[in-house]
Hints:
By secondary structure, the chain is mainly α. It folds into two domains: 34-111; 114-205, Methane Monooxygenase Hydroxylase, Chain G, domain 1 (Up-down Bundle). It contains seven helices and no strands. It has helices at 11-21, 36-76, 86-104, 116-136, 140-154, 165-172, 176-204.
Amino acid sequence: MDVDPLPGMSGGLTTSLVLQTLPKIDEDNVLSSKTPKEKLLETLDLLETHVEKLRKNASQLEEDKDALLSTLDSVMNADMMYNLEENDKDDIIRYAERVMNRCLTVEVKVLTQRDKMQEEALFQVNHLIDGLVIALKTDAESARTKCESYMNACSSNMVQGITDKIFESALLGCTVDDQKKVKRRLYGLLTYFEKMKVVSYNEVN
């Protein structure tokens, strides 16, 4: 039987500390020289800081979840899996799937506010990346090269080759948050392409 933690202990400790640091409106302080509007604006400024910190922490949790899922996937596709007996392999897969399903029960979502132009820019970027996934089935090497050119558009440090100017133009029209997510998505694709290259090399040899 699970027992809820007492206030100020374990999981409740973090919440208590956050609540303790939240600003409060002191309406009883008659000696203050600030006007009611100034007091309210000061409180809102502090609350905005907390909100931005909350968004940052939630975004980090999103990244942590993606990283965990990616690592779990790499475990299930590791070369060592091919050296296992069938029964042992089944045990590992079942264990990994159980951990993965547990990870998927965590849902963290940070919404990004966009205007119409930013929505259109993000649609174009996603359309171009989706094209990479489709091209993967017919020409993996070309898709990998194109992915590198997209990745170069996300960073001042070029991975290899050239920068795709069409993708770069669309990316610049996206919000900063979307640009970061696009970069993470491309990095994941590049990792997948490299994994495919290793598998193909092992099959040939």
